[in-house]
Amino acid sequence: MLQSQLFTKTRKEAPKDESSKNAQLLTRAGFIHKEMAGVYTFLPLGLRVIERIKDIIREELNNIGAHEMKMTALQQKDIWEKSGRWDDEVVDDWFKTPLKNGTELGLAFTHEEVLTNIMKNYISSYKDVPVYAYQFQTKFRNELRAKSGILRGREFLMKDLYDFSLDKEEHDKFYEKMKEVYMSIFTKTGIGEQTYLTMSSGGSFSKYSFEFQTITDAGEDIIMYDENKKIAINKDDYSEEIFDDFGLKKTEFNFKEAKSVEVGDIYTLGEKYSKALGLTYKDENGEEKNVYMGSYGIGIPRLMGTIVEIFSDEKGIIWPKSVAPFDVHLIDLAQQQQAKQIYESLQENGVDVLLDDRQLRPGEKFADSDLIGIPIRIVISKKSLDQGGVEVKNRNSEESQIMSPQALIEFIKEL
RNA sequence: CGGAGCGUGGUGUAACGGCUAACAUUCUCGGUUUGGGACCGAGCGACUCCGGGUUCGAAUCCCGGCGCUCCGACCA
Length: 415
Description:
The chain has helices spanning 21-28, 44-63, 77-83, 112-119, 168-188, 240-246, 272-277, 300-310, 337-348, 362-372, 382-386, 405-414; strands at residues 32-36, 39-42, 67-68, 74-76, 95-98, 104-107, 131-140, 155-165, 195-201, 208-215, 221-226, 231-234, 256-270, 280-282, 288-290, 292-299, 312-313, 316-317, 328-332, 353-356, 376-380, 390-394, 400-403. Helix 1 (21-28) packs across helix 8 (300-310) and helix 2 (44-63) packs antiparallel against helix 5 (168-188). By secondary structure, the protein is of the alpha+beta class. The chain has two domains: 3-313, 2-Layer Sandwich (BirA Bifunctional Protein, domain 2), CATH 3.30.930.10; 326-414, Rossmann fold (3-Layer(aba) Sandwich). It starts with 20 loop residues before the first helix and ends with a helix. The strands form six sheets. It has a five-stranded mixed barrel. It binds one RNA strand through helix 10 and helix 11.
């Protein structure tokens, strides 16, 4: 992409209606635009990051036999009444609205009921399960208080996966697998080191569930975590009881306390929704059984915001390679043909390049580059050409090296 | 939903109840400059969030609304 064609601009100052680091940096660098509290537009750079994150998740989920689909954001009232979740006393963050013909509907806050209802068309035999289906969908939560930039929004993109299993045993196996898959996703997006599989109370479906908590001061949760054993307990649930229930000895752990963000959660739903909506199959003996379910969520903007909270310095964002909007930021200070040639040959080799072809002073280009945070910066200038090529520098290091255009291609391809 | 704070050009700030609402930045034009948001000059850009009230006079004081941020509660 040519930076001269990118319509967004950077700002020196953050708008005063943002105080979280993620929203300040993402706004200043031109990744997001706030529409209202908790509601953000993702601009071209921001969308690229979203798509990179989605790609990582997709690859992991497709690997274990899950299939992507896309459900609707408008949902009918009656399937929610069957599970009892239409009631404001049960779920208090609905956005509900009547149609012109009077029919009441809800804006999606989750999709258990919807997908369970869909699956009634496709699951009728024990041979039809397990089914693993997921989507990336806009979710609407009528939060009393949106906060922390893109970490808690009223409208946000969520990856939600649901498993439809034969029985508890089959579901449990998948659940264990998802623990690994989630960890792998968070590792690939760059926050593996800070992210802990965390035990917490499980809500209405089961006594306990697991969530993935990433340590950062921007978080609204508090976890007790063991760095070596790589496990944590949500502080709300940190008790003798939980140790007993999991058969663990408190003395075997060295727990520390930290603020954290819940970047993902995995729930066992059991037969709650299959029973409520009548999703059953016939087993080998012709007997009717309820499908056994689980749900697995990751808030995509929240994950993106968490990454920014962790990886930044006083100059701007420092994207992990895997989720950066571009692989390389090519900065042309020479205003000659070489930059265009390198730009094109990098692209031919499958490298995503942002070429800063604007006629600006070097200082401004460097400042923008640091703010936007693309992991590799390549400068082509009179100075670098005199020294025999281009200057390559990582965003997170001060050192740079000169290499020839040919060597550059090889160097980038190997990363 | 309880509490606190804040709403002034696109952005960030200033202005005792009293001149034409100021400064910086962005933007436009001209000049100079080209390895860390450089410099000089000239411009454009505001019903001071909305509605009432007090006053000779309100960005400023009072009431109501709306919006935003933060703390707490909530987060299936």
